[in-house]
Design goal:
Layout (H helix, E strand, L loop, with lengths): L1 H34 L5 H27 L3 H28 L2 H20 L5 H21 L7 H73 L3 H32 L8 E4 H10 L11 E6 L6 E4 L1 H16 L9 E8 L6 E9 L19 H16 L2 E6 L5 E8 L1 E2 L9 H4 L3 E5 L3 H13 L3 E5 L2 H10 L4 E5 L7 H9 L10 E5 L4 H9 L4 E4 L4 H11 L7
Helix pairs in contact: 1-2, 1-3, 1-4, 2-3, 3-4, 3-5, 4-5, 4-6, 5-6, 6-7, 7-10, 9-10, 13-14
Length: 558
Amino acid sequence: MAGTIWQDDVRRQVERLDADLVARHAVIFLTFVIVAFPLPFWLIFFCYIGVLLTDIAQYRILAILEKNSTALWRVTLLLAGALENFIFLIPAIVVWVIGDDLMRFVVFLAVVGSLLNASSVRSACVAYGFASMVPGIAITLWMPWAGRWHDASALGSALALAGSIGLLGYFVSALFQNNRAQHELAAMVEKVREASAAKSRFLTAMNHEVRTPLNALLGHSQLLRDTADLAEARTHAAQIEIAARSMETLVEDVVDLTAAAEGRLQFRPTTVAIRSEIARLERQPLAVAGVPTPVIRPEIADEVPEFGRFDPVLLRKCLTHLASAVLSERSGPGLAELTIRCALAPGRKDRLRFTLAAHGAEGSARGKPATIKADPGPAPEIASALLDSIARVMGANTAVLRAPDQTLVARIELPFIMVAEPPATGAEAVYGRLRTLVVDDIASNRLVVAQLLRSLRIEATEVSGGQEALDSLGDSDYDLVLLDMNMPDMDGEATLQAIRSSTRDWAGIPVVALTADTLGSQRDHYLRIGLNGFLTKPLDRRALWSEILSACPPPPPL
């Protein structure tokens, strides 16, 4: 692991040294030219040659470390970096001892330049950068005390030493900051590369997935146009329907996957009649891509409660993808049957477990091992990514397992909240006074809702339309609105929009939808436009109480 980290650092270090090569050697040459005036030529010549040789040696060592990072070569690189800077600073040491004040200033700049080079250019590897700084650190600490040879006071030397320590501390800090910034930049670049590669894979998958049902649509449409046989025409029509469902599922998956990637996939729990919701799967089959719509056989364990709070729309999406996975290996004529069993998770009363298993058309479990398709295509990548994203939003766990008979079985386990019975003393024990406005164009519906509310000891005022609701909100104070979504003239959506766009204090009042619509897409639409809850007709007293608790959180106890 350490060798791999070193090799990554070495690659970045070579790039930094290459970028700095011309400027670095230009400054080195200029420095030696300047100090050549007070010093012997042979000293400057040998020091310059020594710097060039050690610089070349470091490139050779870095090339070796890129291929094989061993402890010996790493130590050799550190020694070479320290040696190069020491040779470079030998003239500075001599000038500091024998030179005048102006030349001392020049060589002090050379020492600072050495430290700057080590803390910035050589910061890709902290150990290499610090080793290169060691000669500069030692000389910077030595310079103030060497000044005593020229009649400097002890106090002046001590102050100069303190200043040198502060300067060196800054350079060491800069070394670590530059190293951290480079690692963060490298991680960001790698993340961008991974995102680009994922985008390319996604586009490739999309190209494959769009063309497959599109070819089926075009081919079977042409065959349907030319055939005169009724049975053959029905076969082509069935294949066209399957291809259209596949494209519909694909479009929804792309939209959901984009929403999940951007953090817009929202978890909207509602109070659900669990048994009715599962039984509805039999009447509203899952749109499984690539196969004829399967026959759904729901099974519900006795311990499953009647009501619970979870997001039925997201659950349905997960069940759709899990059903596709289970049926992906199915072959043979006839419609498949899919058993969806719902039970409480073992030992848990706050988690539901759904198990999906495919069966043959006759209703018995398939006995022979399934044969995996030779080319399943890239669709599983998209479906798996979306399934993981949805499950993560719901706090659920999903798995596709291989049964002993080699068939596929899918499972999803998700948290839910059991709906408690309303308190015997009514809502007054929880809220004190709670005032609701019931909006419905049908008097019998209003009467049922109002009586249920009053049985919970909640005040209820009835109005028959959207405009009356707005007028009533302006005249009196309410805590909650129960709004029918299907009304003539001003429907529920228009009423909600008028409430939310109002500048009055009641613009943010909680609004719960009352509707006979049970389609998952319609329910999701209602929650997305700003409603605080969702109730389907006919109403249940416990479901009503649960939605009220969710839409109007009770005040904290005194």
